[in-house]
UniProtKB/TrEMBL annotation, chain A:
Its main location: membrane. This is Protein VACUOLELESS1. InterPro entries: VPS16, Vps16_C, Vps16_C_sf, Vps16_N, WD40_repeat_dom_sf. Residues 8-407 form the Vps16 N-terminal domain. It is found in: Vacuole membrane. Residues 505-819 form the Vps16 C-terminal domain. It comes from Sesamum indicum.
TrEMBL record, chain B:
Belongs to the STXBP/unc-18/SEC1 family. This is Vacuolar protein-sorting-associated protein 33 homolog. Pfam families: Sec1 (PF00995). SUPFAM superfamilies: Sec1/munc18-like (SM) proteins. Gene3D superfamilies: 1.25.40.850, 3.40.50.1910, 3.40.50.2060. One of its GO terms (biological process) is vesicle-mediated transport.
Amino acid sequence: MAGVAVAAEWQLLYNRYYRKPELYQMQWKNVDLTRNKIACAPFGGPIAVIRDDAKIVQLYAESALRKLRIFTSSGRLISETVWKNPGGRLIGMSWTDDLTLICITQDGTVYSYNIHAELISTFSLGKECFDNSVVECVFWGNGVVCINEAFEIFAVPDFKVPKTVKLADCNLEELPHCIAVIEPQYTKSGDVEVLLGVGDHVLLVEEDLVQPLAEGMGPFQKMVVSRKGEFVASFTHDGRLLVMSTDFSDVIIEYACESALPPEQLAWCGLDSVLLYWDDMLLMVGPYGDPVRYIYDEPIILIPECDGVRILSNTNMEFLHRVPDSTVSIFQIGSTLPAALLYDALEHFDRRSAKADENLRLIRSSLPEAVEACIDAAGYEFDISQQRTLLRAASYGQTFSSLFQRDSIQEMCKTLRVLNAVRHVEIGSPLSIQQYKLLTPSVLINRLINAHKHLLALRISEYLGMNQEVVLMHWTCTKISASAAIPDASLLDILLDKLKLCKGISYAAVAAHADKSGRRKLAAMLVEHEPRSSKQIPLLLSIGEEDTALMKATESGDTDLMYLVLFHIWRKRAPLEFFSTIQARPLARDLFVTYARSYKHEFLKDFFLSTGQLQEVAFLLWKESWELARNPMASKGSPLHGPRIKLIEKAHNLFTETKEHMFESKAAEEHAKLLRIQHELEVTTKQAIFVDSSISDTIRTCIVLGNHRAANKVKTEFKVSEKRWYWLKVFALATIRDWDALEKFSKEKRPPIGYRPFVEACVDAGEKDQALKYIPKLADPRERAEAYAKIGMAKEAADAASQAKDGELLGRLKLTFAQNAAAASIFDTLRDRLSFQGVS
Amino acid sequence: MSQIPNLENAPINLSAIRARAQAELETILKNVRGDKCLVIDPKLSGSLSLLVQSSELKKHGAELRHLTAEPIQTDRTKVVYLVRAQIDLIKFICSHIHNDTSKGLHREYYLYFVPRRAVVCEKVLEEEKVHELLNIGDFPLYMIPLDEDVLSFELDLAQKEYLADGDATSLWHIAKAIHNLEFSFGLIPNVRAKGKAATRVADILNRMQAEEPVNTSDMGIPEINTLVLLDREVDMVTPMCSQLTYEGLLDEFLGVNNGAVELDASIMGVQQEGKKIKVPLNSSDKLFKEIRDLNFEVVVQVLRQKATSMKQDYTEISTTSQTVSELKDFVKKLNSLPEMTRHINLAQHLSTFTSKPSFLGRLDMEQTLVEAQSYDICFDYIEEMIHKQEPLVNVLRLLILFSVTNSGLPKKNFDYLRRELLHSYGFEHIATLNNLEKAGLFRKQDSRSNWLTIKRALQLVVEDTDTANPNDIAYVFSGYTEERHLYPNINFHSLQLIFYSSVFACNLSYRRPIEEILRLLPGPHSEIKRGGYASIPSYETLPGSLNSSEKLADGRRSLVLVVFIGGVTFAEISALRFLCSQEGMAYDLIVGTTKIVNGQALTETFIEKLG
């Protein structure tokens, strides 16, 4: 069987198989792990290498200056830089989750490098670390814990926030034997917990707490915490491996090693076993059974991953992991599980052997699970031809199975294509399928673009149907940073050519980057291409293109953007300059005025004054005069009317200065005069009912109060026309029902607008008898007819209407009398007679 | 029957739009956990009554308040403000918070802007130093369906803000609302606009499409075929005249707000002294749907007819032997009895207004004004109204009609009437006059009026096409007017005719004479074709006629969205519905408007006291 060769490479640990396929032959030359400090990032990340200054090494034909070199997992050089940083020996070096290389020197300085070996930032761990050198560091995902010569412990919980936290003092007298860290995300408190191997026990150290654990179980020479912080593996001074829960209450594995010498490296292999590495031997210990031994004749480094351990040596990289169940079911020697038979069937089929059919018949009922197992096993393979064979077996089985979910083969192919692409020696990211799923495709893409593998990232995101914007955006920004020598116009063309691939990409964001890179002109050119004004305009403001921003905002029709620009310019420019800017743009001006009118009166006044719109200032002053009146301090009739009138007069003068506003000027003058008169009236009548009523109302009030003299005075002061005067007086007299006075008034002289006001006033007051005094005096028979109709005298109305010879009027009157049949008939006869006359 | 209209028969899925708005409101209420005091600005609360019932809001633990200058009295610790983005409202909120702080009250404040956050309002919040105390969000309510075929953008002040203040915010909102519609129903391929504001909205809409494109490829055939944008400014005459349709009159006299009219319970035959009740008015009421667009006189006749036939049925039932199915029919008819009673009550109440001589006089005057033949009579009439100090709105309404039909008044008359207005109503109304002048509604004459030309030209269109081309729109209109002429007191509606001719000149048969008339009406016009639809019929490929060939392939009639910027009256909507119902009309219509208005409401937005 073909599986034999595969399974021959497996090792059995109790009941589980392990294998360690080679991932890469390292591409580097002359890298000796023993001479160097090495930092390897998990998830198939890069490897940082620097000569170890703690060791005495022989320099061959190389510079005495150390070089920091960054390689891919396949050993391809990504970048290098000369290490010239002061601060003494390099104590710790590690990659963070977002692939920033953190280097900590003796004096407590933290240097952050990106994958291109460019120094991004530095910060200090603080004075205590500067004064008492850092001795040891333990890193986790995004943080570090370190201990200095004064045995003080510090933590940086997150490198994105360069802040050092001092942990509780645990009064150490000597350096602990070992240090391990439980990541903040897996602790109860949410803060980092440090485990120190001290004396014969362990100290759990937090920010404000020290707690002894595992008393009498030590001394512990080495400790390492499992990935999710549930377990701790430790090596005691008497050569035992102890695996315990992190509260040290449960011992899960106890294994006595042959040597009491602590191992150089101790690491978790997934969650199932622990690896111990001495000089030339790698020992794998599981919960049960005999451990597995591997012999290495060259130094290695263990790189823990979520599902196994990568083993780096000078020449190659291997991946030690548990053989997944599906693979076991196919390749285990002598397996007769459906998956194994299916795999076998394919081989027979390829050899045109009829046994293929026989195999298939055997597993008919469990075909779907066999197919599933083949697909699953393919996913775990690093060898492309093996992947292919397994997938072919799956697809072969699928043709005989109607029940199977058909897209899972496709899905797996997709995933494998992506994995194979990034595993390629050139890229050097040996991700397993589990790591890939944990890492997520979008993080993978971010890692690729971070490593400037934009094309591959773009292809993958396209292939997986993800948004390409991230990739293009990063490419563009990188391109801008890297193209200082390319003139703006040609760079713009290069960028636009790529940017057009992605619809809806934010040109504004690109422009913002160009601006940050000191290419303001390019930024201005790019922002021109941003279709969304809501993105474009804030950027234009930030690059100081206020006038363009104002123009664009006006074009967009979005008043909210206009206000944004307005307020920005307002803040930045001197008032006068601001005024002249907006005065030139009607929409901007009107919006400013609207806002200022309801919020910034004084400033608005300045604006109108500076732009010579005196009438507008006058309106504002006039408006203020009312606000003054509303002021509770200015109770009616108080001398505060003085300032009020002054304001109105000021308005009057301003109106006069502009020729076009004679009407307003006159009105303001009259208003001031009116207020004075009303004020006097209130004083003489001792009634606060005049101020702020209109001229007509004032006259009415005077008449109602019987003060005809005052009424007449107001009339002459404001040249009230006779027409209006008659209406006002008649209505006022009717209001107080002074019918005698009304009659007297009607006889004063021939009323200039006839007797209609008298009739209307009486009718409105419901005084039919009074009305009848005036109706006959109405000159127009039509009016007479309507008046009679209003007081319900149908006959008289009809007579008057017929006198007017107005058929339409008759019709209308009839409608008024619709409810009254007798009256209606009168109108009908009359109208008939009329129309007859009309015809003849 | 509910005030929230039933939208099942809408030509596009308006319920989805409403459901989305409802869901958004619910999310807002859910996001603020626990008991809260919900403070709504009163105008908005009216609009919301078309969206949710207040009991629904209370379900989310909300205590309801209206936003006023007064501090809110509540013991809730969370206050949620739901307001339109207006500075004066924001000032209220600031004073509330200042008031709470001065009393040492600590509350959580949430502020939701409708329909979106506004820089200018946040600026005020910053100046008042309350910005950090607020959690700010928005409630993107850009439109509310008022009925099956009417959408409102709820922008009461659009006309005034744009014309008098030069504030074009509402135009952007309208464009945004339409663009949102396009996201649901596809890019509208034909856009026609008449009037300054309308062409601007078309322009902004296009810009929005460029900025945030509606995907034309995966939406299929757009559901709305044509968008007609009309600026109220094009015709200020129609809304200033009294409406004579049933629904229009209800609005004129009783005020229809948010699809309901509020009146004394006694009028509706409910014996509860002094109690007000709300009567919902929308097409869920079958009878109302039938009569809302008819002239009021006709409505009275229809109601009488129905009552008579019912009585007849009743007599038949009681006298002769009936089959069971006949009985069933009768009972079915009885079901419409509550509707009958409702509208008979309303009609009766209305007729107390319509029979008043003052109303008839006003109609007469409106006609005289519109005929524009006897300037002096009009002038004297308005002068007298001012002297008699009749309600200012009524005076201004006629004054606007007077000024618009004359392209302004001669300076002497203009100044004289203005002075009389100030003398009669107070100097504070200088602001009102100023607004009207800026908006061009009451102004000095600077050119000869072309009103008579417009009027004549449009009437000519009617006469010409009457016989020549029976399929023409104008024919439809003359039919429309003839029908009106059948009844007394309603002979005047030629203006609406003008208006709708222009609508359809924009829209359907694009014929030269109408284009010339379009030019006579104020404001520019534009037409734009958009999107890459090859399969959609456009006017070029169609003859100017309204043949049945214009129907879409699936048998549906294609849909025209007519948007009125600055408001539309019920009577105008009725006229549009009438048009749609004509045989040979290949279009369904949906009306969009900044707000349902009438002359009074429109005029009131311009009234501003300086004090």
